[in-house]
Amino acid sequence: MYLNGNGDGNGKGSPGSGSPKGSPEGSSEKKIGGGEGMQVKASTGTAKLILDVPEDARVYVDNHLMKSTSTHRVYSSPALDAGQAYFYDVRIEVDREGKVVATNKRVIVRAGEEFTESFVDLGKKNSAVTTAKADK
Length: 136
Prior knowledge:
This protein is mostly beta strands and 136 residues long. The chain has one domain (15-133). Helix content is 0%, strand content 41%. The chain has strands at 38-41, 47-52, 58-61, 64-65, 72-76, 85-96, 99-110, 113-118, 129-133. It starts with 37 loop residues before the first strand and ends with a strand.
């Protein structure tokens, strides 16, 4: 979701509707994530999230479940304003030993960039915090 210029957090949509988000009040970023991932040039005006995850992972971008079940998930943003920072909140969940193991990441991107990160170790010993019991 895109944050408007006054930083009030009111967005113009969500990844499901194709709109990036802006930043929280007082911040210079607009909604689409923040992290330690590699940023590389992509097509001008858009951004891509490239996430490598376990086969059984559930991946949420701004609380919208991605439909893909691949271990290599790609999300392309709608057109973004050049020179602006945006973010997506990403959550990855896996079920392990009757519990949900999850991690959250705020990913910061700009028009023409890619964010790439691997979460393939999620759910392995000491890789993330268990957040809840799985419903089975």
